[in-house]
Write a structure and sequence with these properties.
alpha/beta, 9 helices, 9 strands, binds S-adenosylmethionine, UbiE/COQ5_MeTrFase
């Protein structure tokens, strides 16, 4: 596919794949963004978990623990409880959810990238969790699951990579049962004045360099940092979740807003 870039004005609005979106700080057609994102994750998959630790100083583990503790999967196994983790990559959220349920619930990891899922499958097998976790190749914008199928939908550090966020949110709403919970963990807007300068320095200089050394691809990590800055802030994203039909939408910041956990219910 040709790597052309267009401005929002140039893009046609009749064909959704022609609508302009961002790939980091570049404006690209929506149809093109997914290919670019897929390239990034194919390249970094084998070093993705290590890079997460290096980039966040291990903080991503605490944020993910906090997410799953808020999700509160049932622990008794008395009733069936289905969990879907979209853009689930190497399986961090699914593995935590299953462990927290005393290995009683079933998690489905759905991701568009086979390389990321492959790493996840191996990790789940190594942890003895293959019985509880299935890995499904699929697009967040067109989930390969029936309506009203899941009790919980999670997505961690995934939604900013999806070209049509509104569509992904509508799909989340569709596949959840009534009474189902939506949770999204994502990088967000830092709200501590002095801290944001330090965070910028770290993000735009240190992270692409660490990425270059560890994965051999600094550009992939420039994309990841830039995509964080293009993502809507906490309030705007909460509004998008409401627009998709969720109710009782709330969020909480982690580490001064570096990350935020949004929650909503399908009522
Ligand atoms: C930053 S990783 C997050 C992985 C994992 N959730 C975590 O927290 O470690 C982003 C993931 O989003 C996936 N992704 C990107 N676009 C997607 C789409 N349209 N549908 C499903 N997954 C997508 C990528 O393949 C990648 O695995």
């Amino acid at each position: 596919m040709a790597r052309e870039f267009s401005t929002p004005e140039q893009a046609s609005v009749t064909d959704p794949s022609e609508m302009a979106t961002s790939f980091g700080f570049r404006t690209v057609r929506e149809g093109e963004k997914q290919d670019l994102v897929d390239d990034v994750f194919h390249k970094v998959a084998s070093r993705y978990d290590l890079m997460n630790d290096l980039m966040s100083g291990g903080l991503h583990r605490l944020w993910k623990d906090a997410m799953v503790s808020s999700l509160r999967p049932p622990k008794s196994g008395a009733r069936e409880w289905r969990h879907l983790d979209v853009a689930g990559g190497t399986g961090d959220i699914a593995m935590r959810t299953v462990e927290r349920s005393n290995r009683t619930v079933m998690s489905t990891v759905c991701d568009i990238n086979g390389s990321m899922l492959g790493v996840g499958k191996d990790r789940a097998a190594a942890a003895g969790l293959s019985q509880n976790i299935e890995f499904v190749l699929g697009n967040a914008e067109e989930l390969p699951f029936p309506d009203k199928h899941f009790d919980a939908y999670t997505i961690a550090f995934g939604i900013r990579n999806v070209p049509q966020i509104d569509k992904a949110l509508q799909e989340a709403h569709r596949v959840l049962k009534r009474g189902g919970r939506f949770m999204c963990l994502e990088f967000s807007q830092v709200d501590v004045p002095a801290f944001d300068k330090l965070y910028d320095l770290m993000s735009f200089h240190a992270i692409p360099k660490i990425g270059q050394v560890v994965t051999g691809d600094g550009d992939a990590y420039s994309y990841l940092v830039e995509s964080i800055r293009k993502f809507p802030n906490q309030e705007r994203f909460a509004q998008m979740i409401r627009t998709a039909g969720f109710e009782r939408v709330t969020y909480r910041n982690y580490t001064g807003g570096i990350a935020a956990l949004h929650s909503g219910w399908k009522i």
